[in-house]
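Exam review. A common question shows you a sequence with its structure tokens and asks you to describe the fold in words. Practice with the pair below. Do the first one on your own.
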Amino acid sequence: ADEFVLEDVEVSVSDHVQKVLKPNWSASWEEIGAENELEDTYTLPIPTLEECVKKIISYMGMQPCERSDKVPDGKASHALYLAGVYRGGHDVLVRAKMALGGTSSDPGAQAITMQLTIRSTDESAVQVIASAVE
């Protein structure tokens, strides 16, 4: 009997999502509708909106739309719009509204409060995408 050493492999949510550019993200958002929608609020121990945007894009593995990956200078809040296709061909859209000034466990650290809303054509896809943040 042969024995083989396997390396640890980490599979994340982003490995199950294909980036898709939606030229009119808002129209796609309305088209999918709120039937399979999940909304939650998080406090993230991240110091800047720019860093938060980069991390969310990385964790979700989705395409930023409507130039929402660019945070204007001096802003205390921002909305990020993402689009992708989850396994099985299910469209997934994410709206992340972020604001500086959330309270973190470290009083000197800056935190971001984020309201995350996910819509998809498939209910299980919404749950999986939401798990990327938790």
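Now try the second one, then compare your answer with the model answer below.
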Amino acid sequence: GFMTRYERKLFDDLKSPHLKYWVPFVWFGNLATKARKEGRIRDSVDLQTLMNEMNKYRSWCSLLFGYDWVGIPLVYTQVVTLAVYTFFFACLIGRQFLDTDQGYQGHDLDIYIPIFTLLQFFFYAGWLKV
């Protein structure tokens, strides 16, 4: 509903190896210039304001396209996965409670369920999967 059938045909017939997000912006710029020449836009300041806002929106789209163009290398996800699991293991061992006054042989680890460490791990692992 945003394009006429003719505009849709022109859009589809345009050969481009990349996204064609910029085509409607060019059309908008041409129509705004034509409207200024025909007197539908009465002031050049209004035309300039329209074009500035359109260019700002177009630059946001190109920035988004740039983020889509460059993928995150696989090694980053592997490093983050290793960091999360290493952090969890270190916290699991490091957050054990040892009471040296009890005279444990060899200072063995106390065995208990580290609830907050487990919650922290579940949150980090969940974020990692997202």
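Model answer, second protein: The chain has a mean pLDDT of 84. The first helix runs from residue 5 to 13. Full marks require stating both points clearly.
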